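Please, structure for the following, as tokens.
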Amino acid sequence: MNTSFRRCLLETPPMSETTDREQVRNHIGLIDDASLEPGLSADGFREAFRNHAGGVAVVTADAGQGPVALTATSVISVSATPPLLLFSVSALSSATPTILQSSSVAVHLLGAEQVDLARLCATSGADRFADTGAWTRLATGEPYFLAAPVCIRGGIAATFEAGASTLVVVNATHAHYAPKAVAIGDDAARPLVYHNRTWHELTELSQVC
């Protein structure tokens, strides 16, 4: 990770749980597209990344006009002190405007048993919240899918424009665990991974050393 970018993330002040939704936060144009060298085509770039596996998460938010959710494979941890995570959202996603207008999000880290949830939140036009028994709201208001092994709630500390996407930095404030997820060895806690346009489950058999 670029050193100046990481320093910017770490210097971003933690957000209060009571931060108003209309607060002004850091938003930076990280990349000047005009300064970039000619690069890979979009198809060539996607092809290069096809063999790069990513963990699967569902991000939810509600800026006051109703809940939204999207599936993301871009979630990464940035820092434990302070606790920061990062994900990206595409300008093409219908959920992006709500996420960027929100002051907080819930990031659900999925296990293999939640592949249907991952598919649902990755399907354009699907009603992610039609099954009212599958989700509720956290005490702080964010939509929460009950089946997720781990859900991290946090305030949006900063956003960075980069190409056709926006990087979202989250100051993690709470972690919620599904009852099954705390049982060691339970299948529900086996991570869901996206690789080569296909969903995969990590098990002991995938360990190489």
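The chain has four helices and 13 strands. The helical segments are 3-10, 42-49, 96-101, 115-122.
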